[in-house]
Write a structure and sequence with these properties.
The complex is a heterotrimer of chains A (505), B (419) and C (424).
Chain A (H helix, E strand, L loop, with lengths): L14 E5 L6 H8 L10 E3 L2 E3 L4 H6 L2 E4 L11 H6 L5 E2 L2 E2 L1 H14 L15 H14 L4 E5 L7 H16 L3 E6 L2 H7 L2 E6 L2 E6 L5 H9 L17 E11 L5 E11 L3 E5 L6 H8 L7 E6 L2 E2 L5 H6 L2 E4 L3 H5 L6 H5 L17 H14 L16 H13 L5 E5 L7 H16 L3 E5 L3 H7 L2 E6 L2 E6 L5 H8 L27
Parallel strand pairs in A: 1-8, 1-9, 4-7, 7-8, 13-18, 13-19, 16-17, 17-18
Antiparallel strand pairs in A: 2-3, 5-6, 9-10, 11-12, 11-14, 14-15, 19-20
Helix pairs in contact in A: 4-5, 14-15
Chain B lengths: L1 H16 L1 H9 L4 H22 L2 H8 L5 H23 L3 H8 L5 H30 L7 H18 L6 H28 L3 H20 L25 E3 L2 E4 H19 L1 H11 L1 H6 L4 H28 L10 H11 L4 H25 L4 H15 L1 H8 L18
Antiparallel strand pairs in B: 1-2
Helix pairs in contact in B: 3-17, 4-5, 5-16, 7-11, 7-14, 7-15, 7-16, 8-9, 8-10, 8-14, 8-15, 9-10, 9-14, 11-12, 11-16, 12-14, 15-16, 15-17, 16-17
Chain C lengths: L22 H23 L4 E5 L8 E5 H21 L6 H21 L3 E3 H27 L7 H18 L3 H25 L4 H24 L3 H4 L7 E3 L9 H5 L1 E3 H19 L1 H11 L1 H6 L4 H28 L10 H11 L4 H23 L6 H16 L20
Parallel strand pairs in C: 1-3
Antiparallel strand pairs in C: 1-2, 4-5
Helix pairs in contact in C: 1-2, 1-3, 2-3, 4-10, 4-13, 4-14, 4-15, 5-6, 5-7, 5-13, 5-14, 6-7, 6-13, 10-11, 14-15, 14-16, 15-16
Classes of the chains: A alpha/beta (505), B mainly alpha (419), C mainly alpha (424).
Chain lengths: 505, 419, 424
C-alpha cells in the first residue's frame, strides 16, 4: 500500500506544497487525483462536489492539470501537436493545425511562457519541454495545476523563473500543488505545506517553519544534513583527465575539453545541472562511451584503450547514475548482483564455470557488512527498496581493493537512512586512500561530500572551488556565470546541451 | 535481517507438516503445472469441436438434435473418442499390440512402435526447442530456428552423401557440418544485432525464407540432385553417416540420446557456466551487464551462434536420422515447432525436453489418427498452437477455470519488446 | 518505457562533425559497385542481339528495342555515373534521386542482358507486378495500422490464410464473390481479434502470439480443407472469381490503361487504401492519437486518450484489411483454396512494412518492388534464364535485412511498438 488515509485540501489561488522524501507516496497521491490510478477508499471533492476520476479525461474535465516528473510529451511530435493531443479540434474531419498553433501562441503569450509551436519536442532542452507541459495544462483551462518535482531538472536560475511563473498563475486565480523534497523551494513559494511520510499525512506547516523542523517531520526523526568527515589528506594523483572530448548518443558534443585530476584520499565532487556532460564524462572514463580526443589515466595507465571489464579489473569502482537501468539486474538474486562484475574471477569462478557456493558466502558477508535488508541472498533484487538496491551496487563496487571510486548520483531515489549510510561509506573509502569522484545534481550532496568541487556547464569545467564556496556563487557557476562577466542567457530554447530525451524516456 | 531469519524456520516446519494439504491447496491454484494441464485439456476440447463440426455425418445428426439428441451426442462422442484413442495408441501404447505380442500373433517391436515414433519425432524438436529457449534467456527471440535447421539439413546432408569417410567419423563430421550450417545462419542475426542493433526477429524471419529458397535451388543442382530423378530430391546419405537406429519399423535413433545429452549440456551452460551468467545478465538487463563489464555484442553474437548450432543439429538429426535425403520440405516445420516447444517448456532446458516429447507424441499419434480415424494430421498443428496460446496467457486459463490467483505462472515473455 | 531498441544504441561512430564516409558516400560505393557489376558482368554476358520491350501483353505491337549488349553496358555506365556523383559528394539535394537512378539503371542493364534476343511484354510485367503487390500492400497496411499504434503484427500470414480460406468457403456456398470478400475480411478480423486480446488484454509477447497464430491459422485452415474442401470441392471450394472491370477511355492509355483501368476491385482497393491510411494517419484526430499511442502511450493516457481501446480498434481494422488481402489468393489468383497457399506472402508483407519504414507510401513502394522481383523471377524461369529464380525471390528478404541493418540509412520503428500498455 502506497497511501494510507491521506487528507489534503487546496484553496483557490494558493500554492500548496506537498513535501516528502523519495517513495513517501506523493506521486501516487497525485496520480490518483489525476485519474491515472484509482483510490481504494476516500473521495475527491472539487469545489465542494464529490467526483470520481476514472481516467485523466475526468480529471481534466474537472479542471485539474498535471505536469509529470517525467514529461508526458511525444518526442517526435511538434509542440503544437503535443499540446493539441487529446483535445484536438478538427475541420471537416481533418486536424485544424492553424488553430492549434494559434492557441499555443495565445496561451504562451498570456502567461509569459515562450514556446515555438512548430519545434519538434525531441530537439528542445528540458527547461523548454517543461514550459510546453505547463502550456499544455493551461490550454485545457485548468483551475488546479499539479507540478510533480518540477525543479529536479532545472538550474537555480531556471528554478527562480519557474517560481515567478507559479506566482503569476496564482495571481490569475489558479491553484497549484507543488510536489517536492527540496525544503528551500518550499519555503520560497508555498502558502501552505503538507508533509507526507510512508503514505500518511504527518503534519501541516507554514512557510515560516524552520528547515530542520520540516526535515525532521519529513523523515520522522532528527536528521543531520551534514556529512561527518575529517579534513582530507590528499596523496598521489590517481585519476588524471586531460583535454577530454566526448559526444553524446546523438553525436552532439557533450564533454568539450575537460581537464581534471583526482588525488588519492580526496573526494572530488562534480556539481552541475543534469545534462551538462557529467554523464558522458563518467561513461567515457568507464570505457562505456568512445573518447573523441584527450586522455584518461589512472596511475599513468591509459584507460581509453581498455574495455570496461579491464577498467573495472584495474581497480576502478563505479556506481552508475541510473540504478535500475545500469546498476542492477532486477531479475537476478542479491548474490548474483553482488558478483555481476566478478563472476569469472577466482574465487567465484573462472572463464568457464561458476562456483555458486563461493558466490553465496561472499554475498552473505556483504549483506551483513552493508546492512542490505533482504530476506535472503537468493531474493531477486527487484523486490528490494531503492535504498537497498543502491546498497547492493555500492557493496559490489566496494568489495574489492580500489584505486579509484566513481559514484554518479549515489543517492538518487534513496531513503534518508540509506543516504546517510552510503555517504558514510564513501567517506570511509576516501579515508583508506582511494581517490573518489562523486557526480551529483543535488548541490547539498556535493557540498557535503566533496573536498573540492568542479562545476560543469555545457561540457566544460567552469571552475574548481572549495566546498565552503557560498551557495549563490555555486548556483551562478551552475548556470554558466563565472565571476562578474555575464554569460550566455540560460533560458533560450535550443541552446542548452541538456539532453532532451532525459525527461521523456 | 536478523529478525526475519529467526522468523523463517517455523514457517518452514509448518509447510512440511501439512505437505498434503499444501499440495491440495495448490492444485487448484494457477501454478505452472495446473495451467499446463488445463491448457492441454482446453486445446483438446476445442480440437473435439473442430472434429465434430467438420464431419458431415455427425452434423447431420445435429439437424434433428431436438427430436433425438442422443443420436447427435453418441455420434459426436464416438468420433471424438475414437480420434483421441487413436492419438494415444499411436503415441504411447496400443493395448491390441500387447495382447498380440503376448499370444504370439504380433511382435514386441510392434508394442514399442508408438514410443519409437514419439521419440523419433521428438529428437529434432528438442534441439530446435533448446535453441529458442537458450536465445530467449539471453534476451533474443530466435525465430530463425527454421532457417538454421534448414541450413543444418543442407550441410549435414551434403556432408552425408559427399564425404568419403569411415563410419563413426563420417557421422561425427556430418553432425558437425549440420551444427556449422545452423551456426552460420545464427551468426548473421547475432552479429547484425551486436554491431548495428538490427532487430533479430526481423533478420531471422527473412533468413528463414532465404534458407528455404536456397535449399530449393541447391537440390536441383548437378551433383546434389539424385541421379536419374527429375524431381527435387538429393542423393541419399551414406550408411556411414546415418544415425544408428533399432532397425526395422523402429525408427528411433541415436538422435534422441544426443538430444538428452544436449539438454544436459544446455542446462549446465545456463546455470553453471560463466557464459550462462553473462547471457542471463544480458538477457535480463543488457545495460547493467554492459556497465558491469560484460561485452553485450560478444554475448549476442556467441549466443546466436550457439543457438544456431543447436537448431542446425536439429536439422542434422532429421536428415541423418529419418529422411536420409534432402527434399524441399526435409526440415518440415521443426524450427517453428521448436519455438512452441520452448514456450511450452518455459524456456528451461528440461522443460523443453518434456515439451518436445509431448509434441513428438502428438505428431506420432496424429499419424495413426489420420490413417485410422481419417482425422487430418493438421489437427495436431491446431492442438499445438492452442496449447501454447493458453500457456502463454495463464491469466486467460485462470479466468476460464476460475482458478485462485497464485504465484503467476507467467511465461518467460518478460522480454516483451519492440522491434 | 525504457530500453526501446530503436537500434541506434550501440553505434558510437556518429559525431557532430560530418566524417568523410557519410551516408551519401557509403551509398555511392554501393552504387558504383553495382554499376561496375552491370558493365563488366552483364555487358560481357549479354549476347549482341536485340532486346524488345513490347507495349502489350505479348510479342506484338509497338516496342522499345535496343541491342542487348549495348543496353547492358549503356545502363551500367549510367549506374556508374550516378554512383560517381554520390561518391564525389556532389548534388547532395538529389541524393535520393541519384540512388534511385543508379538502382533503376542497374535493373535495366540486367533486363537488357536477360531480354537480349527475346522480348519482354511490358503490360504483362507491370500488371503482374501490381497484382502480386496487391496482397503485399494490403498486408503491409494492416501492419502499419497495428504497429503505428504499438502492436506488432507478425500474424499477417495467418490473417491472409484465414481470409483466403473464408473467401473460398463462403464465396462458394453463397456463390457470390462479394460475400466471399466480405467473409475474408471477417476471417482476418478473427485472427486479429485473438491477437489483440492476447497482446493487449493478456500482455503476451506480441511476436510470440503472432507466430503461434500463424500456426493456428495454418492448422485450422489445413484441417478444414482436408476434411471439408478436398472431399467435396464443388460445394465448398469453387468460389466465383473476381470480375475485371474496364473503364472505357482510360483503359486505352498505353501501358497504364490496361494495368490500372482494366482490372479488379482489389487492386483499386489496395491503391485507394494507401492514400486513405496515409491521410488519416497524418491529418486526422484518429491518426494523431494513433501515432501518440504508438510512440508514448503514457503521454497519450495522461491527456485522456484510451490507449488500449485505440489499439484494439487499429488491430481489428488491420485484420479487416489483411483478411481482404487474403481474398486475393482465392478470388483473384487461383480460384480455389489450397493448404498453406499463401506460402510466406504474409512475411513478405511484413518485410514491405519494415522496408517501407512503417509508412503507407513506403509500404506501397516496397510492395511494388517485391512484386516486381517475383514477377521477374517467373519471367526468367519461363524464358529459361541462367539466373535462378530462387535468388530473385530472395531479393525482398535480403533487401529487408540490408535495410534494418542500417547499411542504407536506418529504419526506426514506433518507439512503443510491441510494448503492452500497463498502468503503473
Amino acid at each position: 500500500m502506497a497511501n494510507d488515509h491521506i487528507d489534503l485540501t487546496v484553496e483557490p489561488g494558493e500554492v500548496h506544497a506537498l513535501l516528502g522524501e523519495n517513495g513517501a507516496g506523493k506521486s501516487t497521491l497525485m496520480n490518483q487525483l489525476y485519474g491515472l490510478l484509482q483510490p481504494d477508499e476516500g473521495e475527491i471533492l472539487v469545489d465542494g462536489e464529490a467526483r470520481t476520476f476514472r481516467s485523466p479525461r475526468d480529471a481534466i474535465a474537472a479542471g485539474i492539470g498535471m505536469v509529470h516528473q517525467h514529461f508526458m510529451l511525444v518526442p517526435v511530435f511538434t509542440v503544437a501537436e503535443n499540446i493539441a493531443l487529446g483535445s484536438e479540434r478538427t475541420r471537416l474531419g481533418f486536424l485544424d493545425r492553424r488553430r492549434a498553433r494559434r492557441e499555443v501562441l495565445e496561451v504562451s503569450e498570456r502567461y509569459g511562457l515562450p514556446c515555438d509551436p512548430d519545434a519538434l519536442v525531441e530537439n528542445l532542452p528540458v527547461g523548454a519541454q517543461q514550459r510546453v507541459e505547463i502550456v499544455k495544462a493551461l490550454t485545457r483551462d485548468v483551475d488546479l495545476l499539479i507540478l510533480d518535482e518540477p525543479t529536479a531538472v532545472l538550474t537555480p536560475q531556471e528554478t527562480e523563473e519557474l517560481l515567478t511563473v507559479m506566482r503569476g498563475l496564482c495571481a490569475a486565480g489558479k491553484s497549484i500543488v507543488f510536489i517536492t523534497h527540496k525544503l528551500k523551494e518550499v519555503k520560497a513559494i508555498a502558502d501552505r505545506i503538507t508533509v507526507i511520510r510512508r503514505g500518511q499525512t504527518v503534519g501541516t506547516a507554514t512557510p515560516d517553519t524552520p528547515e530542520d523542523e520540516l526535515a525532521a517531520l519529513m523523515v520522522g526523526r532528527a536528521v543531520s544534513l551534514e556529512v561527518a568527515k575529517e579534513p582530507a589528506e590528499p596523496g598521489r594523483e590517481v585519476l588524471s583527465i586531460t583535454g577530454l572530448v566526448v559526444d553524446d548518443d546523438r553525436g552532439v558534443r557533450a564533454v568539450d575539453g575537460v581537464d581534471l585530476t583526482v588525488r588519492a584520499g580526496e573526494v572530488l565532487g562534480i556539481a552541475g545541472v543534469q545534462g551538462n556532460g557529467q554523464t558522458e564524462l563518467v561513461e567515457a572514463v568507464m570505457g562505456l562511451r568512445p573518447v573523441r580526443t584527450g586522455s584518461i589515466q589512472v596511475d599513468n595507465e591509459d584507460l581509453t584503450a581498455m574495455s570496461t571489464k579491464q577498467i573495472l579489473r584495474s581497480g576502478v569502482g563505479y556506481v552508475p547514475e541510473d540504478r535500475s537501468l545500469d546498476g542492477v539486474v532486477k531479475e537476478f538474486t542479491v548474490a548474483e548482483n553482488l558478483v555481476l562484475d566478478q563472476y569469472d574471477r577466482e574465487p567465484y569462478g573462472n572463464a568457464l564455470r561458476l562456483d555458486s557456493a563461493a558466490v553465496g558466502t561472499k554475498a552473505r558477508e556483504l549483506v551483513d557488512e552493508f546492512d542490505i535488508r533482504a530476506s535472503s541472498t537468493g531474493t531477486a533484487v527487484g523486490t528490494l527498496s531503492g535504498g537497498n538496491q543502491q546498497k547492493v551496487v555500492v557493496a559490489r563496487e566496494m568489495s574489492r581493493p580500489l584505486r579509484l571510486f566513481i559514484a554518479s548520483q549515489p543517492t538518487r531515489g534513496v531513503d534518508v537512512g540509506s543516504i546517510e549510510f552510503i555517504h558514510g561509506r564513501i567517506v570511509r573509502e576516501r579515508d583508506v586512500g582511494t581517490a573518489v569522484l562523486v557526480v551529483s545534481s543535488e548541490l547539498d550532496e556535493v557540498v557535503g561530500l566533496a573536498d573540492r568541487i568542479a562545476v560543469m556547464y555545457r561540457g566544460k569545467v567552469l571552475a574548481i572551488v572549495p566546498p565552503d564556496t557560498p551557495r549563490d556563487k555555486l548556483g551562478l557557476l551552475m548556470a554558466g556565470i563565472t565571476g562578474d562577466a555575464p554569460a550566455a542567457p540560460v533560458f533560450e530554447a535550443g541552446d542548452s546541451p541538456a539532453s532532451a530525451d532525459e525527461g521523456t524516456e | 535481517m536478523t529478525t526475519e531469519e529467526k522468523a523463517a524456520p517455523p514457517a518452514e516446519e509448518k509447510r512440511e507438516d501439512s505437505f498434503l494439504s499444501h499440495f491440495l491447496h495448490n492444485l487448484w491454484a494457477a501454478n505452472t503445472v495446473t495451467v499446463t494441464v488445463l491448457s492441454i485439456v482446453l486445446a483438446m476440447i476445442i480440437g473435439a469441436v473442430l472434429i465434430i463440426v467438420s464431419d458431415e455425418n455427425v452434423l447431420n445428426t445435429f439437424s434433428y438434435f431436438t427430436a433425438r439428441p442422443s443420436d447427435a451426442l453418441t455420434a459426436s462422442w464416438d468420433i471424438v473418442s475414437n480420434a483421441y484413442a487413436d492419438l494415444f495408441k499411436g503415441a504411447i501404447l496400443d493395448p491390441a499390440a500387447i495382447s498380440a505380442a503376448a499370444d504370439g500373433s504380433g511382435t514386441w517391436k510392434q508394442v514399442f512402435f508408438p514410443i519409437s515414433e514419439t521419440l523419433t519425432y521428438a529428437a529434432p524438436l528438442v534441439f530446435t526447442g533448446l535453441s529458442v529457449a537458450l536465445a530467449f534467456r539471453g534476451g533474443l527471440f530466435n525465430i530463425g530456428g527454421q532457417g538454421q535447421a534448414i541450413m543444418g539439413t543442407v550441410l549435414a546432408g551434403v556432408a552425408g552423401f559427399a564425404l568419403p569417410l569411415p563410419p563413426v567419423i563420417h557421422l561425427i563430421a556430418a553432425l558437425l557440418a549440420g551444427a556449422i550450417g545452423g551456426a552460420l545462419w545464427g551468426f548473421v542475426p547475432g552479429i547484425l544485432k551486436a554491431r548495428t542493433g538490427a532487430h533479430e526477429v526481423i533478420v531471422c524471419i527473412m533468413l528463414n525464407y532465404t534458407a528455404n529458397l536456397f535449399l530449393g535451388w541447391l537440390i536441383l543442382q548437378k551433383g546434389v540432385q539424385q541421379e536419374g530423378r527429375s524431381d527435387a530430391i538429393s542423393e541419399t546419405v551414406k550408411g556411414s553417416a546415418q544415425l544408428p537406429s533399432f532397425g526395422g519399423e523402429l525408427r528411433a535413433n541415436l538422435g534422441i540420446v544426443l538430444a538428452v545429452l544436449a539438454t544436459a549440456g544446455v542446462a549446465w551452460l545456463l546455470n553453471r557456466s560463466a557464459f550462462g551468467f553473462e547471457l542471463r545478465a544480458v538477457g535480463a538487463n543488457s545495460h547493467a551487464a554492459r556497465t558491469a563489464g560484460i561485452s553485450v555484442a560478444k554475448t549476442y553474437t556467441l549466443l546466436m551462434v550457439v543457438a544456431g548450432a543447436l537448431a542446425g543439429l536439429g536439422g542434422a538429426t532429421q536428415v541423418l536420422g529419418t529422411a536420409y535425403a534432402l527434399t524441399p520440405a526435409v526440415a518440415g516445420n521443426i524450427g517453428f515447432d521448436g519455438l512452441l516447444v520452448a514456450l511450452l517448456g518455459r524456456n528451461r532446458p528440461w522443460g523443453t525436453l518434456w515439451a518436445a516429447l509431448l509434441f513428438g507424441a502428438l505428431r506420432a499419434g496424429g499419424n495413426r489418427m489420420q490413417s485410422f480415424s481419417g482425422i487430418s494430421l493438421e489437427l495436431v498443428t491446431v492442438l499445438q498452437a492452442l496449447i501454447v496460446i493458453f500457456i502463454a496467457a495463464p491469466a486467460l486459463v485462470k479466468a476460464i477455470f476460475h482458478l485462485r490467483a497464485a504465484r503467476a505462472a507467467r511465461l518467460g515473455t518478460s522480454i516483451a519488446k519492440g522491434w | 518505457m525504457t530500453g526501446v531498441s530503436t537500434a541506434t544504441v550501440e553505434r558510437p561512430e556518429t559525431s557532430a562533425a560530418a566524417p568523410f564516409w557519410d551516408r551519401q558516400r557509403r551509398l555511392g560505393v554501393g552504387v558504383v559497385v553495382i554499376g561496375l557489376l552491370a558493365v563488366v558482368l552483364f555487358g560481357a554476358l549479354a549476347p549482341s542481339e536485340t532486346a524488345r520491350f513490347t507495349l502489350s501483353d505479348d510479342a506484338e505491337g509497338a516496342a522499345f528495342s535496343i541491342n542487348g549488349q549495348l543496353g547492358a553496358i549503356l545502363f551500367g555506365v549510367i549506374a556508374l555515373a550516378a554512383g560517381g556523383v554520390l561518391l564525389a559528394g556532389l548534388w547532395r539535394r538529389f541524393q535520393t534521386s541519384m540512388l534511385s537512378l543508379g538502382i533503376l539503371a542497374f535493373v535495366l542493364s540486367f533486363l537488357c542482358w536477360q531480354v537480349a534476343g527475346k522480348f519482354l511484354p511490358l503490360v504483362d510485367t507491370v500488371s503482374g507486378t501490381l497484382e502480386l503487390a496487391v496482397p503485399l500492400i494490403l498486408g503491409a497496411l494492416a501492419g502499419v495500422l497495428g504497429e503505428r499504434s504499438g502492436v506488432i503484427n507478425v500474424a499477417i500470414e495467418g490473417q491472409f490464410l484465414m481470409g483466403a480460406f473464408f473467401a473460398a468457403l463462403v464465396g462458394t456456398m453463397a456463390t457470390s464473390v462479394w460475400a466471399g470478400l466480405f467473409s475474408a475480411a471477417v476471417g482476418g478480423v478473427i485472427i486479429a481479434g485473438i491477437l489483440a486480446v492476447l497482446a493487449i488484454r493478456y500482455l503476451v509477447d506480441q511476436t510470440v502470439v503472432g507466430i503461434v497464430l500463424n500456426l493456428l491459422a495454418l492448422g485450422v485452415t489445413g484441417f478444414l480443407y482436408e476434411r471439408l474442401m478436398q472431399p467435396n470441392a464443388q460445394s465448398y471450394n469453387q468460389p466465383p472469381k473476381m470480375p475485371e472491370w474496364r473503364i472505357p477511355g482510360l483503359a486505352d492509355i498505353p501501358v497504364v490503361g490496361p494495368v490500372l483501368f482494366d482490372t479488379n476491385l482489389l487492386v483499386w482497393l489496395a491503391l485507394i487504401l494507401v492514400f486513405v491510411v496515409h491521410f488519416a494517419l497524418t491529418r486526422t484526430r484518429w491518426g494523431l492519437r494513433t501515432r501518440a499511442v504508438g510512440e508514448h502511450p503514457t503521454a497519450a493516457d495522461t491527456v485522456g486518450i484510451r490507449v488500449r481501446g485505440l489499439r484494439y480498434l487499429n488491430v481489428l481494422l488491420g485484420g479487416l484489411i489483411a483478411g481482404a488481402g487474403g481474398a486475393y489468393f482465392t478470388l483473384v489468383a487461383t480460384g480455389s483454396f489450397n493448404k498453406n497457399m499463401t506460402a510466406g506472402a504474409g512475411f513478405i508483407a511484413l518485410a514491405a512494412l519494415i522496408f517501407g519504414r512503417w509508412t503507407p507510401f513506403g509500404a506501397l513502394g516496397a510492395a511494388l518492388f517485391f512484386g516486381f522481383a517475383q514477377k521477374l523471377a517467373t519471367y526468367l524461369s519461363a524464358v529459361g534464364s541462367p539466373v535462378p529464380s530462387q535468388f530473385l525471390n530472395m531479393l525482398p528478404y535480403l533487401a529487408t535485412i540490408v535495410a534494418v541493418a542500417g547499411l542504407v540509412g536506418r529504419v526506426r520503428a514506433p518507439a512503443a511498438d510491441g510494448q503492452p500498455y500497463v498502468k503503473s
